[in-house]
Amino acid sequence: MASPQSRKTNPAFYALLTALIVMSAGPIALMLATSMKLNVDIMSETSSLFFMPTLRNYEVALCDFLPYDVEGLRRCDPTFGRSLVNSLFIAITSTTLTLVLGCMAAYALVRFRFMGRNVVSLASLVMRMVPPAVLLVPVFGIWTYQFQIDGTRAGIILVYVAMNLPFVIWILQSFIVQVPIQLEEAARMDGAGPFQTFFLVVLPLIKPGLAAAAIFTFRVAWNEFLLGNALSDRNSRTVPVTIVNSLTEYDIDWGVIMATGMLLAIPPIIFTFIASRQIITGMTAGAVKG
Amino acid sequence: MQIARINRLTPYFFLAPAIIVMAVALLYPIGYMVWASFLDWNPSQRIGEADFVGLRNYAKLLNDAAFLESFWVTVKFAAVVVVLEMILGVGLAMLLDRQLRGMTLLRTIFILPMMIAPIVVGLMWRYMYHPSVGLFNRTLKSFGLEPVPWLSDGTWAFASIVIADIWQWTPFIFILSLAALQSLPRSAMEAARIDGASGWQLIWFIKLPLMLPVLIVTALLRLIDAFKVLEVILVMTNGGPGLSTEILALRISRTASEFRELGTAAAMSNLLLILLMALTLAMFTYTKISEARAARLRAAASKDH
User: Quick one: which of A13, A55, B147, B243 has the most CB atoms within 10 Å?
Assistant: First the structure.
């Protein structure tokens, strides 16, 4: 803070900075506050700043997992609890699979010269732009009539892995390029095969890249709605699908919905606070290198 | 001999799993979609049972007022959102390009709206726009002003989804342009300052032109993403009232699930895909051209010395 530029800093800049932080985090804070309000408080005409925070909405949403009965709740609806389990399973499995497959492919693209290399590279760039809405019709048709895996978690995982692979391959490529080839040559000298070199030498060196790729993949698999909605049945619904299904035109139970929304938002929020640097690197790389 | 063959096959072993998954679950569906767009197909039929109708789906779309309306809404939404977000994002980056305490916190908080589920973003805004319990109308009421029909009037609904999108995505532009700004060569700025350039002149004649390549790519990236927005709008308005916020992606999903016309939905998807591919290609070509120009300039500069 000793640089001459910072000493001149006008307090107005701090005001602007604070305003931006408030504007950006405000809606999220409002959601958190609403999720801790009883419906009486949400609907009341008086000021909404003062209320007794309660965890009741979370208890209602997660009633299936609680060892005790929620007070005053007539019937426990297990829908949300089930979809939370589905979401976790689908997001974690598809992230792991995408990373393993993506890593191997990116390594091959960077380190080997072979026929078709440029085609694969360009194709994965173009594929990044395909939106889920475009995949909706064909994926629904194929999954239902040809693969017959509609309504299963495996079916949803398959489409998420495929959707995320192009981006993961592309971002990992840029990290693998930076691994000095001498290290790999030394490993090979010592008698390691290509697979050993890859798993024991290269992988540990690109951990930051893996972290960024994992966060972006998890985010897509955890947040996606459209394809999850088309491919899931009652037992394999994910959290976004459950939330949209519980939104009706009138008479929305805002407290509980906000609690479920908050539960859906928490993992990405945690990742952001842990790894904002990696996320920004991933984002800027996306724009600067095209 | 044996070893040599294994070595030659190694890259394919590494690539094979990823290629197979993408071929089965990405490339094949896209091909399938192109084929389906020539069929009269409803969800209870296998694709083999659907009738081939040639270009009829496309012809129908071009005469379908609802589709044209939704296409227009999509283009309008993308254009408005990108322009406003570019102005705000770049402007904020210019203002805040200095060593400030709290900058890291701002950047972290700024990423949050992009990381949390679009469904949740839609939910938050739908709550804030709520006619009676929402934050905005409550505030208006406490000042004694008339409540605004945020989501129930066509024009307001469009403005409302634009505002939500600005909240969610301006930080993206801000972060990218701040990164570009901070990597500009210091020497150009110093030289201009010594020549007596004012702050505005510095921004207008030095910073903006130097940032332009990054800004164009950023705008194109954002434009491509703006065509993909779906969930936020789905939760907030579900395309209504009327067709005022029915963007193309929503129309595709409704055509498939409500109207049960998979062939028509496929034709729409195909048009959207072509549009996005064109934008991607434009971005790709632009990066290649500007890289080539930079290389030429560097070569010219080194020849001078």
Answer: B243
Domain assignment of residue B222, given as a range? 65-304
Clarify whether residues A176 and A54 are in a common domain. Answer: no
| Chain A contact present for B303, CB below 8 A | no
State the ipTM, two decimals. Answer: 0.85
Compute the distance between CA of residue A168 and CA of residue B45 in angstroms, rounded to an integer.
36
Q: Is B41 part of a structural domain of the chain?
A: no
Contact A199, A107 (CB under 8 A): no
Measured distance CA(A158)–CA(A137) in Å, rounded: 16
Task: Tell me which residue in A17, A223, A264 faces B106 most closely, judged by beta carbons.
Answer: A17
| Interface contact B52, partner A, CB < 8 A | no
Is the pLDDT at B278 greater than 70, yes or no?
yes
Q: B266 in contact with A at a CB cutoff of 8 Å?
A: yes
Place of tokens 């997992």: A65
Q: How confident is the model at residue B3 (pLDDT cuts 50, 70, 90)?
A: low
Give pLDDT, residue B12.
Answer: 80
Residues with pLDDT less than 70, chain A: 1-9, 45-50, 70-74, 115-118, 120-121, 124-125, 249-250, 285-290
Phi, psi of A123 (to 5 degrees): -60, -40
Q: What is the CATH number of the domain that holds A106?
A: 1.10.3720.10
CB–CB contact A247 B235 (8 Å) = yes
pLDDT recorded at residue B1 = 42
